[in-house]
Input
Amino acid sequence: MESLSERLKTLRKAKDLTQEQLADYMGVSPQAVSRWETGATSPDISALPQLADLFGISIDELLGYDEAERQKEILSVIADAEEQINQNITEKPIIDLRRALNKYPNCDRLLTCLMYALYVASEDEDLCRKYDPEIISIYYRIQRYSTDNYCRNETLRVLFRHYCDTGRKTEAKQLAASMASAEACYDYNIYWALEGKERIDFLKDRMRADLRQLLWDIWAFSTHAEINDDEEQQLNDLRREIELRVKSSFHLE
Output
């Protein structure tokens, strides 16, 4: 396991900071930082949260605990939370995610998943009022500090839906204006960098996603358009036929 002194030196250089700059941030002398990095002395325990915050990591990471194990634990918590949310279990995922965030307070993926869990639970009117400030707070924290594009895009999407669901259409439209166009996103561009089986597998995945979106669009139109029962039935029949034909033609599950 990498020592704290080695960790500090690696993190400082990765952030392109000099010893003097780190010392100024921490309110200590450059000599103190030098001694930290040589292992002659260690930062006071009270300084660890400030250091971890500067480098955007947890205290565990700062102390050099196994990153692979950390990621495995985080992904497991997120997978369990998402599975429970899909089963309409809303309270336990929030509790589990908060517990994980106590251990990894700077993990953007956990924060993003918590925001989604709070949003789903907000279908309850009382919980919506309770969780509204936290949902918005997580969004601004991620947008301000995170460099993870997934987290930035996902929290933007969730807050947009939250605003729509709570009647704040003006705020929702303002958020939508900052969303990337479909033509600029990963799914519409990565195709050109792929070849062979990888390209075919990607196309199948994208067709599955596009099919889900098309079927949803037809359902939404049939629900909101002013059409009679016969026309609605025709659209439902069309949805089923499209789904069967596309899945059969391209051997999609």
